[in-house]
Amino acid sequence: MTILVTGATGFVGAAVARRLLAARIDVRVLVRPESDRRNIQGLDVTTVTGDLAEPASLDKAIAGCSGLYHVAADYRLWVKDPAAMYRANVDGTRALLQAARRAGVERVVYTSSVATLGTHADGTPASEETTATLDDMIGHYKRSKFIAEQAVDELAAGGLPVVIVNPSTPVGPGDIKPTPTGRLIVDALTGRMPAYVDTGLNIVHVDDVADGHLLAYQRGTVGRRYVLGGDDMSLREILAECARIAGRRPPWLELPHDVVLPIAYLAEAWARLTGGTPRTTVDGVRLSRKRMYFSSARAESELGYRSRGGRVAIRDAAGWFRTNGYLD
Q1: FRET partner for 161 with CA separation of 20 to 30 A, picked from 1, 140, 225, 327?
Q2: What is the pLDDT of residues 22-48, one digit of tens each?
Q3: Who wins on pLDDT, 76 or 31?
Q4: Exposure class string for 81-103: b at 16+ Cβ within 10 A, else e
Q5: What's the CATH code, domain 2-174+204-231+293-309?
Q6: Looking at the whole model, is its pTM more than 0.85?
Q7: DSSP secondary-structure letter at 91?
Q8: Which SS3 state, helix, strand or coil, does residue 149 take?
Q9: In which band, very low, low, confident or very high, does the pLDDT at 291 lie, cut at 50, 70 and 90?
Q10: 294, HSE (Cβ side, Cα atoms, 13 Å)
Q11: Per-residue pLDDT tens for 180-195?
Q12: Do 302 and 161 meet the contact criterion of CB atoms below 8 Å apart?
C-alpha cells in the first residue's frame, strides 16, 4: 500500500510522514521544485515533483496510491498577495481531491484547522459542532481554510471517502520556517516577548497530531471532522513555560488589544516597504481577542486519540529550536 502525503516538507506534514513510516507504510511525497527538503532528509520516502497549482502534476502524483493525506497549506497570518493563499488552500485542495477521486483512492484524510470552527465568548472549549460562518473568519488564512473545508464537504457528499481533521495549535520538533506559533515560542525563549495580551490557545504536540491523522484514516467516519488538540493554555501560561525552560523571568506586562493593534498596523506597513515579515500582524491581534480553546472529546471517543499535553509540546519544541540554532 502506497500513500501520498502533501506538505511533507513542512511542519505537520513531515510529522505525518514519519508516523506513517513508523507504521511500515510506503510513503510518496509531493514536493515542489523549490521546496526546502530538510524535513524529509533521511526518510525512506519516494518523492514526486509537482505543485497544487498544476493539476496535471497531481494526477501523476496520486497514480497507484491507495490513499492520500492532504496536509499541505499556506499557513501565514500576513501575506502580501492573498490571492496566492487562496490558490494554494482552496483551488489546490479542490484539484488534488478531484485527482484522488479519479484515481479511485480508498481513503483521504484532509488536514483542516480549528480556525474553521466557531468559539465560545466565555472561553469554554469549542468542538466540531461549534458552528461558524465565513463572515466570522478573521484574515485570509482562516477564510481560505473555511472555503476549502466547504469544498471538501461537497466532495464527500459526492462520494469521495474523505475524513477531515482539525488540528489546534501544533508545536514541537521540525518547525523549520518556523510557523507563527513556533516564532512566538522562539521569541519567548530568547526574551523578545516582554509583554502579552489576554488570549489563549490550545497547544498540541505535532507528533500527537500525526498520530491523529493515522487514526482518522483507520477509524474515522467519512464526511466527519475531528479536532486534534491538546491543552488549553493562556498566552501568559505559554510564555511562562518558555521562560521556565530558558531560565528567564516571565513577562509581567499585559497590554490591552487596542494598544497593540496600532503597532501591528505599523509593523505591516514597514514589512510592505522592506519586503520583510511583520512579527506582529493585524489579523493576529484581532484573533487574540478570542480564546481559541477546543475539546478533542470526539477524536478521543471515536478514534482513540490521546495527547501528551501542551507543556511537553513546548519543551520538545524548545529543545529542537535550541539544537538547530534558532536561539543563537
Answers
A1: 140
A2: 999 999 999 998 889 999 999 999 999
A3: 31
A4: ebeebbbbbbbbbbbbbbbbbeb
A5: 3.40.50.720
A6: yes
A7: I
A8: helix
A9: confident
A10: 32
A11: 899 999 999 999 888 8
A12: no
Cα distances from 219 to residues 107, 129, 180, 212, 226, in angstroms, run 11, 19, 31, 10, 11
Residues facing 203 on adjacent strands: 169, 231
DSSP state of 254: E
CA dihedral 300, 305, 308, 314 (to 10 degrees): -100
For 326, the grid coordinates are 534558532
Tell me whether the omega of the peptide bond preceding residue 178 falls within 30 degrees of 0, making it cis: yes
* C-alpha cell recorded at residue 278: 511583520
Rounded distance between C-alpha atoms, residue 234 and residue 227, angstroms: 19
DSSP line for 46-79 = EEEE--TT-HHHHHHHHTT-SEEEE------S--
End-to-end CA distance of the chain: 43
The cell 472555503 sits on which residue? 147
Average confidence (pLDDT) over 268-293: 78
- Residue showing cell 486519540: 305
Q: What is the Cα–Cα distance from 55 to 45, expressed in whole angstroms?
A: 22
User: Dihedral, CA atoms, 73, 77, 80, 82, nearest 10 degrees?
Assistant: 50
Instruction: Write down the domain spans for the chain.
Output: 2-174+204-231+293-309
Looking from the CA of 72 toward its CB, the CA atoms found within 13 Å total 29
Cα separation, 237 vs 242, in Å, equals 9
What element of type H or E holds 3? strand 2-6
What is the average pLDDT across 54-59? 90
State which amino acid sits at residue 301. Answer: S
Tens digits of residue pLDDT in 87-124: 999 999 999 999 999 999 999 999 999 999 999 988 89
C-alpha cell at 49: 515533483
* Secondary structure letter of residue 35 according to DSSP: -
Is residue 74 within 8 Å of residue 85, measured between CB atoms?
yes
